[in-house]
User: Fold this.
Amino acid sequence: MTMEDDKAGRYVLPGDFLGSGEYKSWANAIKIGDKFYATRVGVLEMGEDRIRVIPMSGPYIPKLGDVVIGKVIEVMPVAWTLDINSFFNAFLPAQHAFRSFDPEKDELSNKFKLGDLILASIAKVERGRDSMLSLDGEGLGKIEEGEVFRISQVKVPRLIGKKGSMVQKIEELTGAQIFVGQNGIIVAKGPAESITKVKRAIEIVETMAHMSGLTDKMGDLLR
Amino acid sequence: MMNLIDEGGKRLDGRSFDQLRPFSMEAGLLKSASGSAYIEQGGNKILVGVYGPRDSRSRYGTNQDKAVLKCRYHMLPFSTEERKSPQPSRREIEISKVIRDALEPALLLEEFPRSVIDIYIEVLQSDGGSRGASITAASIALADAGIPMKDLVSAVAVGKVNGRLVLDLSDTEDKEGEVDLPIAVMLNSGLITLMQMDGKLSEDEFRQAIDLAMAGAKELREAQRKALVQKYFKEVNS
Assistant:
């Protein structure tokens, strides 16, 4: 749009001038007059009429359709409250877990107890409200066992890789089964030595997320 | 009155009137905090950890429209020459409040309604101007935590000793000098978010003091940026 176009792809810090012009949409940036400034540490991306900073740190913000791993922190009469590693908790209504839910007959803690880890998808997001979860989808539900790891949520896409290539590769190399939540929670299931390797692999992704061709190098790095 | 400036215009520690004390800053050194920073400025050694935004477990003290910012400035028992009681003193409570007020205008808290952001500032070793150094470091820690902000906040004190305006007061200059004027500023907009003054300045001196503070803040801001670049983009560039 303007001469600042060549700035795309550069690294920016909060308060950095990004460009000026008639951008219709912007993210992680603020408009003051007709000038745009970055509001977070990240990489600048500029399009025809949009300008955004892809953040390199920050909390997980629930997005519709995201698959997340949450921990049950409260069992209520008709729903569970889950901690999804965000600034809000999330609700999982009981009808998602029981075939035909009857609040008089069904006891929620028979299904999921306090502390259980659940793989669920975000079904509804509303500003200022806890988001709603759903279990509709393949493989969603309680994670029976495994070791829990955390990774910065901005590095989750790297851990998953293109069409899941990275996580598949790590499963192949370690022999563990891995669940990755978009919210930065990871659960790995398998024998102890696999888990140790998974831990290493996660650390590698966390510290070398910027490296190109990391998926191919993972085999060597894990050795 | 104590002689704090020699005939050559040099201060007790050998600095000229417009010179900052030696400083260094580091971003993101704590693993379990959402964001963190460490600053050394003169004799100050200050560690800042930011937690959140997180769900506030209770309704009390939350805001439906934006995140609530909480700040605790705390001096460790060994941070001063005489052991300081670890209980929060009246002074620490006041400084916690002014630091929060100095940082809040920069943050886009409305992006996280109903949540809480905690800033914990631990002074490991104290010297003059610890509130300024705390603000400078807390701003790095907040950026490290990914809290959206309009600009970094940089802070520094200007003072008057032996009738002369000087930048970045040391502890002795603060105690023996005539004026202490800490200032925090968002340099992009020039918005001043903290200004306190002990003592008296003429209008003319006051203007000069602000200019001096702005120049100092600019230098500190460069270091804040460097600390963040070091953490996030160092590996990328190499």
About this structure: The helical segments of chain A are 108-111, 156-160, 165-174, 192-208, 214-222. The interface with chain B takes residues 11, 13-15, 17, 28, 30, 32, 37, 39-41, 55-59, 83, 86-89, 127-128, 154, 207-208, 210 of chain A (CB under 8 Å).
